[in-house]
Amino acid sequence: MALTGGMFLSGHTTPRLGIDLAGGTSITLKAKADQGSAINKANMDTAVDIMNRRVNGLGVSEAEVQTQGTDNIIVNIPKGTNSKEAQEQVGTTAKLYFRPVLASEPSGGAAQSPSPSASPSGGSSSKPSTSPSSSASSPQKASSSGSSTGSASPSATATSQGRAVTDALKADSTPSPSASSSGSGKPSATPSATPSGGTNADSKLQAQYAALDCSKATDRANAGKNAKPGESTVACGEIDKAWYKYLLGPAAVDGTEVKKAQAVFDTQGAAGWQVQMTFTGSGAKKFADITGELAKNQPPQNEFGIVLDGEVVSSPYVSSAITGGQAEISGSFKQEEAQSLANMLSYGALPLSFQEQSVTTVTAALGGEQLHAGLLAGAIGLALVVIYLVVYYRGLSIVAMASLVVSAILTYVIMSLLGPAIGFALNLPAVCGAIVAIGITADSFIVYFERIRDEIREGRTLRPAVERAWPRARRTILVSDFVSFLAAAVLFIVTVGKVQGFAFTLGLTTLLDVVVVFLFTKPLMTLLARRKFFANGHKWSGLDPKGLGAKPPLRRTRRPAGPAAGPVDPKEA
């Protein structure tokens, strides 16, 4: 009743259909060999695997990812899935770098806004110090934070931009400038010495930084384009709906050294949804080293930029080295945004970059006719089972049919709720799994009924027969369902795509079979055993002692006294 009420309250009263039954979105991606990797079968297969895990990262969404030709990948997303989010994830390279901030300032007339701070997540690291200003960041972007509040946002100063940038480049990733504060804004770097000539590369980068206007989409797209991890670069970042430009040093930590990332909700504080990262052994050491160096500097050169696909998603400051190999990224995330970022970081970068060729809405691949055929097959199978139960078990078939109806209702309700919950989509293989489950469920009833009939053949009346038969039937049912569930679980783990739908449905209905038999079938049999129609063994009850060839009723006899008494038959009541 609770599940049914939840289904109606949620408004999801029908299962979500897969792309083979209801259509959806088809995305065509073309591979480009611009990341130093060749377009070959191995790299394409790796890309398909990563994309498949990305779009199915939240559950059984039944998205299909497959190659077409030598350099194309087709992604089919069922109707009802967040196709826009999936579209963004499948072709994203998700290259993550942690770069020291050499200089930063608002771009395009950005207003002041808070900047986050960095903190460890667990481990033995010290907590960063807290600045007097409020902690916040863009709802759309991440910030690395913990229990501390952030410093104020970047603001422009009256100092010469060229001098500040030149000195920052001279100091590379460990500058030691003095700082000047303007109002509540974050201090900008001011030179501790007069500018001196630098290399041509430094002069070119300085010119790029000076000319960069992050409020323009074209500038953002070209900022730091094709920059190598070991080189300084420029980048843009959005904080609180305002754009900032950054001059960043060489990458100190690579995203591939993030061992695990997961989205969690901060129940202890006000940080909301966060992405918790755990670094590998080498990554943890590098992260501790860079945060230790940055902690010695003055703002803004005590910050590191978290650069995802060339865009600064956060630039938290560091007040002490963060050790322990764990850190958090937070910043007023919505749940979907935190999970999306964690998903991409967990599954790594694609070996190739991809260009979106087309996005089209497709109709059902098999359509209503195939669904109708599948449902018809299920109805025929169910009818045959019912006919067998009626002919062989007669009155007991009422118990079996009532249990099948309860199992079907539970399956339908749970499938309807799993659609919005984990992205489950009902496709034809899933329908086949539900049809197979009819036999598994009926088998459990047959085991119990046969145990009861065996007890009646031994001469017992129905009420004790029902209770004595249950322990042995229960063990058999549990073993049988465990084997079926284990097979479904293995199939789900080692396969992808539509076959997973079959395995998932088979496993779900097997679990529901246990629930129905224990909580519905057994109590119902206990109640019916008190009815005269069944208790007296009516001819049409399916429990007629004469029809079953029962022995004479067992009677309690007085045990002979003394040593002459022989062994007692354990079957006697």
Automatic annotation (TrEMBL):
<dbReference type="GO" id="GO:0005886">
    <property type="term" value="C:plasma membrane"/>
</dbReference>
<dbReference type="GO" id="GO:0065002">
    <property type="term" value="P:intracellular protein transmembrane transport"/>
</dbReference>
<dbReference type="InterPro" id="IPR022646">
    <property type="entry name" value="SecD/SecF_CS"/>
</dbReference>
<dbReference type="GO" id="GO:0006605">
    <property type="term" value="P:protein targeting"/>
</dbReference>
<dbReference type="Pfam" id="PF07549">
    <property type="entry name" value="Sec_GG"/>
</dbReference>
<keyword id="KW-0472">Membrane</keyword>
<protein>
    <recommendedName>
        <fullName>Protein translocase subunit SecD</fullName>
    </recommendedName>
</protein>
<feature type="region of interest" description="Disordered">
    <location>
        <begin position="104"/>
        <end position="201"/>
    </location>
</feature>
<feature type="domain" description="Protein export membrane protein SecD/SecF C-terminal">
    <location>
        <begin position="353"/>
        <end position="529"/>
    </location>
</feature>
<dbReference type="InterPro" id="IPR048634">
    <property type="entry name" value="SecD_SecF_C"/>
</dbReference>
<dbReference type="Pfam" id="PF02355">
    <property type="entry name" value="SecD_SecF_C"/>
</dbReference>
<feature type="region of interest" description="Disordered">
    <location>
        <begin position="543"/>
        <end position="573"/>
    </location>
</feature>
<feature type="domain" description="SecDF P1 head subdomain">
    <location>
        <begin position="246"/>
        <end position="351"/>
    </location>
</feature>
<feature type="compositionally biased region" description="Low complexity">
    <location>
        <begin position="106"/>
        <end position="162"/>
    </location>
</feature>
<dbReference type="InterPro" id="IPR005791">
    <property type="entry name" value="SecD"/>
</dbReference>
<feature type="transmembrane region" description="Helical">
    <location>
        <begin position="371"/>
        <end position="391"/>
    </location>
</feature>
<dbReference type="Pfam" id="PF21760">
    <property type="entry name" value="SecD_1st"/>
</dbReference>
<feature type="transmembrane region" description="Helical">
    <location>
        <begin position="477"/>
        <end position="496"/>
    </location>
</feature>
<feature type="transmembrane region" description="Helical">
    <location>
        <begin position="428"/>
        <end position="449"/>
    </location>
</feature>
<dbReference type="InterPro" id="IPR054384">
    <property type="entry name" value="SecDF_P1_head"/>
</dbReference>
<feature type="compositionally biased region" description="Low complexity">
    <location>
        <begin position="171"/>
        <end position="193"/>
    </location>
</feature>
<feature type="domain" description="Protein translocase subunit SecDF P1">
    <location>
        <begin position="44"/>
        <end position="101"/>
    </location>
</feature>
<dbReference type="Pfam" id="PF22599">
    <property type="entry name" value="SecDF_P1_head"/>
</dbReference>
<dbReference type="InterPro" id="IPR048631">
    <property type="entry name" value="SecD_1st"/>
</dbReference>
<comment type="function">
    <text>Part of the Sec protein translocase complex. Interacts with the SecYEG preprotein conducting channel. SecDF uses the proton motive force (PMF) to complete protein translocation after the ATP-dependent function of SecA.</text>
</comment>
<feature type="transmembrane region" description="Helical">
    <location>
        <begin position="398"/>
        <end position="422"/>
    </location>
</feature>
<keyword id="KW-0813">Transport</keyword>
<comment type="subunit">
    <text>Forms a complex with SecF. Part of the essential Sec protein translocation apparatus which comprises SecA, SecYEG and auxiliary proteins SecDF. Other proteins may also be involved.</text>
</comment>
<keyword id="KW-1133">Transmembrane helix</keyword>
<feature type="transmembrane region" description="Helical">
    <location>
        <begin position="502"/>
        <end position="521"/>
    </location>
</feature>
<keyword id="KW-0653">Protein transport</keyword>
<dbReference type="InterPro" id="IPR055344">
    <property type="entry name" value="SecD_SecF_C_bact"/>
</dbReference>
<comment type="similarity">
    <text>Belongs to the SecD/SecF family. SecD subfamily.</text>
</comment>
<dbReference type="GO" id="GO:0015450">
    <property type="term" value="F:protein-transporting ATPase activity"/>
</dbReference>
<dbReference type="InterPro" id="IPR022813">
    <property type="entry name" value="SecD/SecF_arch_bac"/>
</dbReference>
<keyword id="KW-1003">Cell membrane</keyword>
<keyword id="KW-0812">Transmembrane</keyword>
<dbReference type="GO" id="GO:0043952">
    <property type="term" value="P:protein transport by the Sec complex"/>
</dbReference>
<keyword id="KW-0811">Translocation</keyword>
